[in-house]
Design brief:
The complex is a heterodimer of chains A (397) and B (258). Chain A is mainly beta and 397 residues long. Chain A contains three helices and 29 strands. In chain A, a hairpin with a 6-residue loop joins strand 3 (46-51) and strand 4 (58-63). A three-stranded antiparallel sheet of chain B has the order 1-3-2. Chain B has two domains: 37-181, no CATH class; 183-252, Arc Repressor Mutant, subunit A. The N and C termini of chain B lie far apart (49 Å). Classes of the chains: A mainly beta (397), B alpha+beta (258). At the A-B interface, helix 2 of A face helix 1, helix 5 and strand 4 of B. Chain B: This is Serine/threonine-protein kinase 19-like.
Amino acid sequence: MLSFLYARQSGLDDPVRLRRAESTRRVLSLKLNHNRDVDRIHGNGINTLDIEVIDGRYMLSGGSDGVIVIYDLENNSKKPQYTCKAICTVGRSSRHVHKFSVETVQWYPHDTGMFVSSSFDKTMKVWDTETLKPAEEFQFDGNVYCHHMSPVARRHSLVAGVFSDQTKPSACELVNVSLTGHRGEILSVRWSPRYDHILATASTDSRVRIWDVRRASGSLFTLDQHNGDKSKVSSEAVNTAHNGRVNGLCFTADGLHLLSTGTDDRMRLWNSGTGENTLVNYGKVVNESRKGLKFTVSRGCSPEFVFVPCGSSVAVYGLHSGELITMLRGHYNNVDCCEFHPDYQELYSGGKDCNILAWVPVLRQPGIEDDETNSKRGGTQAAINPAFEDAWSSDED
Amino acid sequence: MNRKRALIADTFCLTKRRRCAADSVTGDSQADGAADIRSSLKYLVTLFSRKLFNDSLPPVVLKHQLYSLHNDKTAVDKQVNELRENGELLMFQLGFDSEAFALVFAEDYRAKVLQGEAGRGTLGTVEKFLAKLIPSCSDLSFNKEKMLKEFLFTDSEITQLVKSGVLTVRDAGSWWLSIPNSGKFIKYFIKGRKAVLGMVKKSKYGEILKTELEGRRTTSQVKFQMKYHIHDIIGAELVECIQTTSGTLLRHVDGNVN
């Protein structure tokens, strides 16, 4: 670490490199922190989490009981022990609450005045954060599995939603645009963070398609796990992304690569420009989810990490090397979603056990000399927990 | 500025290597540094029991057995593909699992196939096919146009190839490349795998030390060497491999528990 600092100071290295090295070091030391808690409001499993991109301060969560909660993640108290309080809730008592499970929530990408939620009660609602009332409501014919708003779009504000009973993703704002091509239910949809007109969808017919919304005539291309090598598969399985249902999609932060997970227990990394399978082998990524899986990629580290919920723990893989770095264990039941906070390199994960756990980088303990000076000055940080201070041994040893 | 640029990942030593005394004694501990796939393949070939098939089958190794010897799966895949492109290694799709691929050294394959064909009428066609296949082609399956146009085989010749076991029917108009007489191999392999997994599952707590499993007496179901099966179940991730102070522990993986 000192070498990075020295290189930055003397100008040998880019400032970005030091930042990346520190981010990587922090991600590698993620641990469940007993000092950081998230308020437990949900009475049922948590399906989705989203942290707003502007400040990284507010987090939305949607649960299986239709409840939506907003948390404040910032630690304004001077103490290390901190509980992320829920600021406001759209609870069961609210008139506008979703009747069934909320599958996806997302902040409006440009400010926190608005957020969109979609649920199994066949509606997608656009909420006003101040009043917590829906400003707009879209009705669909089937359960909405997933929706996504483009994080970089300036020229359009389309929300892409996918729902059952129909095999086409719809991009809806005021105009309902349908994109056809899939033969099975679509479980996940994502906009590219690089181009505001590129959309990726994943479906139960084992295919992942990339669309350009400006054309709306057909998909641009389908991702093929064998890269066109027809010799490796049986003839029905040609042109599929996975050997089972594809239920999770995630673009990397720069939009150049796309990750997909499927029920064949595999995760694949694709080049999003050409649709080529980069053939990075992550091994067996246990995946039994019947609906969409929400996973995330770190931002600002080198190399990037993928955080995938695997059963009741979160697996951390190196993005391009495919090796398993660690498994984050702490949940009591299946983990459904996880979200990475890029500024503090923290991971929040929510699951069926109604808990949101915060994984915080473990800071280096201060050295012994610092402890003594602290206690002499009567510093504010208690280095020893008062419960462990021994009150029975004498000083005259 | 001639300073060598190191990767940030190397500074943080992403993989911790804990040395296990019990494993390093036996000598087949995981290889650090440059992975030498060819030597691992040669080692796995020695585990294959030739006598079982009366020497009619070339030594077959499964691709995922290599994953149990080397850490980096992507690098293993890349090196295997390189060897295939050089024409040293042949890869076959076995029927029972879409992810299980068998690897055979090209010279072994050629020798055994010709040995099996000696004295039969199909020898000439098979030789012609092998001559076309081995130096350049690295496909797993062939379809009709390829056989007719690229390789210039006639229909009757294709029938002869299927009869001799070098090709197996996949569906109408396409064929998998296959190893002759490999049916017995697959049958014994699947039975043996099931028996070894059963041994792990029936142990107390569903886990067993690798060295103890190697020493156990095998039932009549298990025809191959124990180590061959152990590499297979570790590489296919059918058991979880945990490093302990007494060596590697293999724990039975139940689908739901994690």
